[in-house]
Amino acid sequence: MLVPALKLFYSVAGRVLLIDAEDDWSSLAVSNLLARWLLTPLSVPGTSPPHATIKIRCCSNAPPMPKDLLRFEIAQGGTCYTDGQTLYLDFNGSVVTIGPGASREVNVWLTERYDFSSEVLAQVISQAFSAVLRRSGLFELHSGGVVPPKHSKAVLIAGASGSGKSTLTLQ
Question: In what helix (H) or strand (E) does residue 34 lie, and over which residues does it extend?
Fold first, then answer.
C-alpha cells in the first residue's frame, strides 16, 4: 500500500499553501476533500517557504482554551471563541485555531476519523482553508455560477449563505 505524503503543497492564485498532516488518515482525508474542490497538489513545492500552513491532526484533543473568551455561534452549528487575537472554532469538539494576530499558521484538531464525505470534516477544513487564504491576502467569493450550453458568457451570483444562489442557478 502506498503511504501518503504528510506534507502536501497546493498552489492557489500564486500562493503556496502547506497542509502539514500529523498522521496518514489526516493526509488522506484532506487530499480527498481538496481533490473534490478541484485543487491539485504541487508535485514539486518549490524552494521558497509556503505562504501559509494548516497543521492537521486526528483523534487528539485540542489544547484547553483560555478562560473568559467572547463566544458566538457560526454557520453549520459551530461556535467561535475569541480573545480578540486568536479564534477558536469548535465543531462538536473538533477545533480550528486561527492566530494569534496575523499568524499564517492554522491548527486543526479532529476528534475522530470522519467519513471522507462528512459535512463536519468539510466544514472544519473549509474554515481552516479560508483562514490561510485570508492570511495570504486572498479572499473567497461565496457564489454560484451559470454557463448556458453552447454559450461563451456566464453569470456569477454572489451572496450570503442561504440567500438563494443555488436555487436560482438551478432554475
Answer: helix 24-36
